[in-house]
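User:
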Amino acid sequence: MAESRHILHPIPPLYTPESRVLVLGSFPSPKSREAMFFYGHPQNRFWRVVSRLYEEPFPETVEERRMFLLRHRIAAWDVIGACDIVGASDSSIRNVTPNDLRPILDAAPIRAVFVNGKTAEKYYHKYTEPVTGRPAVCLPSTSPANAAWSLDRLTQAWRILKDTAERPV
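Assistant: Predicted structure:
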């Protein structure tokens, strides 16, 4: 059995003053940390979902993914800034230090915060919401572990992200 390791989140937040929605995962997987960008595991369906939502080609490279999010006014980061974890197992997360979302929330007019799955929701409610006072909308996880949700069903559930980001001021 793999050992728990204390890991610091290595990926900086992605946002601009034009960002309108914030998507938060729980903590980056080993594949995401290796790629130094969000949702780097090839089986994670995040990029398939958002490319379908916006009816655009699947963004393959980190730069394409970065530009995709920025073009659609989507900020991205994770709730957890450091933790003890075994591999990519959310259930093994211990000794959490949350990320400070104030730099994003101070710089961009974020209309809504979305969390990608129940683990992100759990830690957001515990650590972040009491500090920011902002609720988060929990969307179904795009992780391959959430096999009960088809790609079509995920895309339909995530439509609120696009609707919120594109809503006129």
